[in-house]
TrEMBL record:
InterPro entries: DUF2252 (IPR018721)
Species this protein is from: Demequina litoralis
Region annotated Disordered, chain positions: 322-342
UniProt protein name: DUF2252 domain-containing protein
Amino acid sequence: MTDALDPSAPRPRLEEQLARGRALRRTLKRRGHAALSLPDRDVIGLLEEQNATRMPEMVPIRVGRMMQSPFAFYRGTAAQMAHDLRDAPRTDVRVVACGDAHLANFGLYASPERRLMFDLNDFDEVDVAPWEWDVKRLGASIVLAGRDIGASEKACAEAVSEAVRAYRVGLEKLFAMTALERFYYRVEADRVEESTRGSAARRLMRAAERKARKRTSTRVLRSITTEGSGGDLRIVDDPPILRHLGLITPESTLRLLKVYRDTAAPDVVTLLEQFTVVDGAFRAVGVGSVGLRAHIALLVGPSGEPLFLQAKEARPSVLVSQGGMPLGRPGREPQPPVGPGREGWRVVTGQRIMQAVSDRFLGWFAHEGRDYYIRRFRDMKGAIDLESLTAATLADYAAVCGALLARAHAQSPGAGIIRGYLADGTTFDESIAAWSRRYADVAERDHTALVAAVRSGRLDAEEGV
């Protein structure tokens, strides 16, 4: 099937897309998604391949974090999953895909209007890929998160089914709208809270909202900076997670911010003219991203107000490097699809497409042979505490995430084909629930192999960091 984002492809009307989706069922039945067939693989070898180009001193921390549980391991293995899906049967209806749409990569953040939004919030692996890869990534994460909290296998399967049902019904509602209405559709945190069915789920959402509203630059300033003898602010080292490594000096930070301004929104550039860069430091983040170059810069405004920006290394998406997808273009202009800065551009462009509202400070640059993207650091960002979920609230939360994934996929041209393919039955929901259980079993075995590799000395791990 023609790539839905091929600029030379005709733009079919919705009726034609729905018909093409229905016809696809003859090529790959919806129940066919339940089957799991793995290629020959060395999961530790794949992990070592990824680690080879990361900061060597951070790799044991990454391995230690992945050892914590099968779900923690899963969070760091988007590459392994793309490798596993590469040759599996697929619809080949391609959209701008997240590439790492697991349960913990949905969360809260501030809109430019300072409203609290809830949406996908990690786009390091975004690129053009089959839509069902994101759905499967989400489904397996639900099973693993459910097992972590002691939910039964039945409850885990029901939670996956709820997520996929919400994805399917979400597409149905979205394609009852016009393309413009889909484009403007957004989900604010208070609407998520209202849509949850139980009081326990609402309490979890409120708790996440309260915590997110406190995560401001002023709060970060108090927690990680100190005032020098001359009154200058300086980020305080907290090794190995936060430290001055000299990878990007204050002088180079100034130079790179000037390059970044060429890719940022004009109003943001004008705003930044009022700020002064006072310090910058390396700061490790997440699970899958540990070992990548990630830096925070502290800027101070004319009234002494702080602004923290984060520059994070961007590498080729695993959807391309491991999933075998062609070098895609999640968008058109202004950046060509190859050359310095391409991967930072990919992350920023993909985020702008998939999120209903995105960070106004997004931009990108290249530095010493590496690509980076820039965003606000801890600007009212937050997430549901997954360990606080119960079997009932897991299903509730999973459904919210499934609906949001539908909104993100619905922005791609040709996504109406997915709507036609899924239709109204529950066959696909049940198939993904079955596949997710099987792949969660694989992730648990892979996690056991990781622990064994550490115990045997093949991998080094630093736990509790």
